[in-house]
């Protein structure tokens, strides 16, 4: 259940009650594709850096270790030792990213595994069954993430099919939740809005799926090649047509600036591989913008990554030491930078929530955007 605590223009501050705890929104979900954050970050670490929601990947967990094995081990929460909410994506994005290895039909998608080439079929029912085996808090509907740009005719056909798939997902999810031996009988379902960069198709699709009374709604198919201006225009167009009493999730976005802009347009949930991926390569976020610890000027820099930051890396180590670890190819370098970046994102979301609560979000947003742009 989503409770709107405060609204200022389009900006929303809420809390979302789930079977695995209450999520304070706006929130950033930390991406652990295979049930772990890349960079040797554990579920215990996630608690220390104030992660509220962990996100895992349906397609990848289906391939290994296999969703049936995860189910046998008591579900993903028990398997990875995490008692807070988990969102699993549906595998739909893999339809997009594995475009050379798949065939889309009405019944679903035929894949070749990126690991061993084995033939795989995934449709709405299969995606729901896999996510039910994982026992995640929130399951995402199976959709097609449309390449950008795509012809209007293709987008219209794809969106209509995504709607039919969503109806099938809902029926299957209801069936699975009613079974006696289901891992999580209160599993929630979020639908996904698609439509490429066509505002009118997006709006019509938003109206259609809003009638289905789902637990939440996502805006998918963005951050896949369109400009930031196009993305913001789509968010502006779509958000007013999604239910205002349900959480709104912008999938796969993004940079700290993207998040601030999307919060100001009414978005509640975010996820992105960016902070962890950047961290693994020594690119770290600070209050003054992003820096690359590989640069020679940090070789004798005795300051923390970000002055005043309370993450485990900044409290104990210097830029010089972490740079040395990267040069020496020590795994600890990646771990410390990933921890820092995820803490930075989680802490930023706390600051955003505080700013909305305190009626100073616009000032906070402008101050941050100015600091980051002047140092980029």
UniProtKB/TrEMBL annotation:
<feature type="binding site">
    <location>
        <position position="194"/>
    </location>
    <ligand>
        <name>substrate</name>
    </ligand>
</feature>
<comment type="function">
    <text>Catalyzes the base-exchange of a guanine (G) residue with the queuine precursor 7-aminomethyl-7-deazaguanine (PreQ1) at position 34 (anticodon wobble position) in tRNAs with GU(N) anticodons (tRNA-Asp, -Asn, -His and -Tyr). Catalysis occurs through a double-displacement mechanism. The nucleophile active site attacks the C1' of nucleotide 34 to detach the guanine base from the RNA, forming a covalent enzyme-RNA intermediate. The proton acceptor active site deprotonates the incoming PreQ1, allowing a nucleophilic attack on the C1' of the ribose to form the product.</text>
</comment>
<dbReference type="Pfam" id="PF01702">
    <property type="entry name" value="TGT"/>
</dbReference>
<dbReference type="InterPro" id="IPR050076">
    <property type="entry name" value="ArchSynthase1/Queuine_TRR"/>
</dbReference>
<feature type="binding site">
    <location>
        <position position="221"/>
    </location>
    <ligand>
        <name>substrate</name>
    </ligand>
</feature>
<feature type="region of interest" description="RNA binding">
    <location>
        <begin position="252"/>
        <end position="258"/>
    </location>
</feature>
<dbReference type="InterPro" id="IPR004803">
    <property type="entry name" value="TGT"/>
</dbReference>
<protein>
    <recommendedName>
        <fullName>Queuine tRNA-ribosyltransferase</fullName>
        <ecNumber>2.4.2.29</ecNumber>
    </recommendedName>
</protein>
<feature type="active site" description="Nucleophile">
    <location>
        <position position="271"/>
    </location>
</feature>
<dbReference type="InterPro" id="IPR036511">
    <property type="entry name" value="TGT-like_sf"/>
</dbReference>
<keyword id="KW-0819">tRNA processing</keyword>
<feature type="binding site">
    <location>
        <begin position="89"/>
        <end position="93"/>
    </location>
    <ligand>
        <name>substrate</name>
    </ligand>
</feature>
<comment type="subunit">
    <text>Homodimer. Within each dimer, one monomer is responsible for RNA recognition and catalysis, while the other monomer binds to the replacement base PreQ1.</text>
</comment>
<comment type="similarity">
    <text>Belongs to the queuine tRNA-ribosyltransferase family.</text>
</comment>
<feature type="domain" description="tRNA-guanine(15) transglycosylase-like">
    <location>
        <begin position="11"/>
        <end position="373"/>
    </location>
</feature>
<feature type="binding site">
    <location>
        <position position="309"/>
    </location>
    <ligand>
        <name>Zn(2+)</name>
    </ligand>
</feature>
<keyword id="KW-0808">Transferase</keyword>
<feature type="binding site">
    <location>
        <position position="340"/>
    </location>
    <ligand>
        <name>Zn(2+)</name>
    </ligand>
</feature>
<keyword id="KW-0671">Queuosine biosynthesis</keyword>
<comment type="pathway">
    <text>tRNA modification; tRNA-queuosine biosynthesis.</text>
</comment>
<feature type="binding site">
    <location>
        <position position="143"/>
    </location>
    <ligand>
        <name>substrate</name>
    </ligand>
</feature>
<feature type="binding site">
    <location>
        <position position="314"/>
    </location>
    <ligand>
        <name>Zn(2+)</name>
    </ligand>
</feature>
<keyword id="KW-0479">Metal-binding</keyword>
<feature type="active site" description="Proton acceptor">
    <location>
        <position position="89"/>
    </location>
</feature>
<keyword id="KW-0328">Glycosyltransferase</keyword>
<keyword id="KW-0862">Zinc</keyword>
<dbReference type="InterPro" id="IPR002616">
    <property type="entry name" value="tRNA_ribo_trans-like"/>
</dbReference>
<feature type="region of interest" description="RNA binding; important for wobble base 34 recognition">
    <location>
        <begin position="276"/>
        <end position="280"/>
    </location>
</feature>
<feature type="binding site">
    <location>
        <position position="311"/>
    </location>
    <ligand>
        <name>Zn(2+)</name>
    </ligand>
</feature>
């Amino acid at each position: 259940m989503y409770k709107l605590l405060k609204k200022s223009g389009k900006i929303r501050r809420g809390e979302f009650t789930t079977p695995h705890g209450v999520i304070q929104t706006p929130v950033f979900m930390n991406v652990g594709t295979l049930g772990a954050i890349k960079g040797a970050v554990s579920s215990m670490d996630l608690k220390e850096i104030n992660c509220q929601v962990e996100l895992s990947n349906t397609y990848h967990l289906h391939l290994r270790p296999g969703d049936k094995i995860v189910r046998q081990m008591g579900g993903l929460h028990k398997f990875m030792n995490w008692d807070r909410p988990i969102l699993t994506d549906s595998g739909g994005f893999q339809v997009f990213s594995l475009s050379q290895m798949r065939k889309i039909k009405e019944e679903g998608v035929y894949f070749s595994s990126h690991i061993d080439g084995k033939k795989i079929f995934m449709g709405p029912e299969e995606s729901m069954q896999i996510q039910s085996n994982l026992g995640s808090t929130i399951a995402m509907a199976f959709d097609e993430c449309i390449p950008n740009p795509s012809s209007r005719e293709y987008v219209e056909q794809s969106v209509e099919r995504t709607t039919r798939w969503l109806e099938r997902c809902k029926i299957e999810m209801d069936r699975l939740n009613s079974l006696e031996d289901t891992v999580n009988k209160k599993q929630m379902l979020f639908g996904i809005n698609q439509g490429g960069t066509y505002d009118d198709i997006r709006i019509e699709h938003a109206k259609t799926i809003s009638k289905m009374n789902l637990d939440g709604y996502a805006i998918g198919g963005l951050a896949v090649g369109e400009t930031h201006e196009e993305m913001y225009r789509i968010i502006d167009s779509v958000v007013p047509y999604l239910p205002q009493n349900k959480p709104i999730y912008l999938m796969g976005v993004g940079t700290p600036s993207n998040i601030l802009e999307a919060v100001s347009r009414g978005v509640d949930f975010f996820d992105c591989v960016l902070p962890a991926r950047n961290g693994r390569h020594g690119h770290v976020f600070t209050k003054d913008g992003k820096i690359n610890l590989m640069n020679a000027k940090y070789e004798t820099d005795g300051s923390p990554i970000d002055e005043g930051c309370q993450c485990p890396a900044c409290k104990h180590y210097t830029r010089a030491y972490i740079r040395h670890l990267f040069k020496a190819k020590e795994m600890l370098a990646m771990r410390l930078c990933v921890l820092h970046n995820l803490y930075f994102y989680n802490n930023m979301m706390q600051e955003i929530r505080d700013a909305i609560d305190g009626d100073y979000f616009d000032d906070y947003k402008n101050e941050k955007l100015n600091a980051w742009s002047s140092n980029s």
